[in-house]
Every structure is written in C-alpha cells, then in structure tokens.
Amino acid sequence: MKLSRKLLSILLLLILTAGAALAENHGFTLYNYSGKTITYITLIPSWKPGPWDKVLDGRTLLRHGESIKINSSNFNENEPYWDMRLEYSNGTHESWSELDILNINTISVDVKGTIHWNF
User: Fold this and answer.
1) Cβ(86)–Cβ(93) under 8 Å?
2) Stretch 67-95: mean pLDDT, rounded?
3) Distance between CA 74 and CA 43 in Å, rounded?
4) For residue 9, which phi and psi values (nearest 5 degrees)?
5) What is Dmax (Cα atoms) for the chain?
6) What count of other Cβ atoms lies within 10 Å of the Cβ of residue 29?
7) 98, 91, 100: which is closest to 72 by C-alpha?
8) Which DSSP string do the residues of the chain spell out, in sequence order?
9) What is the pLDDT of residue 79?
10) Which residues contact 92 (CB under 8 A, 6 or more apart)?
11) What is the pTM of this model?
C-alpha cells in the first residue's frame, strides 16, 4: 500500500508539473515585416471594451525585420480570443480582432498591414 501512495504522489507531481509547463509555454512571437517601426503593442480580450494592455510601451522599439516574444502567461485561458493593436513611429496604427492568442505560435505583420499566423 505504501508503494501505491508513493507512486500516486509521483504521478500527481508529474501531472501538476506538466500542467505548469504548458501554461508557461503560452505566448507567441511577433515578427515585424511592416516596413515601419512599431512603438506600441497592445492586447485586450476581444469582449472587453478597454483599456488596452500595453506589451511594448514606446520605450522599446520593434524595427522592421525584428521580432519579439510575447509571453502570454498573464492571459486568462477562459479568454482565448484577443484583439491586438500596433502603433507605429509615424503615428499610424493597425488593429486585428479575435486572435486565438493561446494557440498561435507566431504572428507576422507585412507591408500591407496583413497579419499571418501559425499555430
């Protein structure tokens, strides 16, 4: 019986560790191929009217050809769809709605303002 308890404890620990590891892996890499410099990246759950949560706050710039890993450990798994807004150094901005942030691995923004993603 003692062996069974030890085995059960080990299995439970493995399950909890695997769940924590999966939660930490949420996130995506944003690639900037827009031809412009991104000054702000903001994300908000799709159902929420505001305010936008800033990921890149203007102190760090994401130039054309660069990428940034966006850790979504703060993203609630009950809110899988998020809106993303990019603001550029020339004062323009673009936004996209209902992105499946929890399942997307990469997002690329091209010169036409189109985004492409991979799961």
Assistant:
1) yes
2) 86
3) 11
4) -65, -40
5) 69
6) 14
7) 100
8) -HHHHHHHHHHHHHHHHHHHHHHHT-EEEEEE-SSS-EEEEEEEETT---PPEEEEEEEEEE-TT-EEEEE-TTS-TT--EEEEEEEETTS-EEEEEEEETTT--EEEE-TTS-EEEE-
9) 81
10) 36
11) 0.73
Domains and CATH numbers, the chain: 2-118 (2.60.40)
What residue has token string 């769809």?
81
Token couple for 39: 């000054």
Tell me how far apart the alpha carbons of residues 5 and 106 are, in angstroms, rounded to a whole number.
42
Task: Please write the tens of the pLDDT for every residue from 15-37.
Answer: 544 444 444 556 899 999 999 99
Q: Report CA 12 to chain centroid distance, whole Å.
A: 29
Say if CB 28 and CB 107 are below 8 A apart: yes
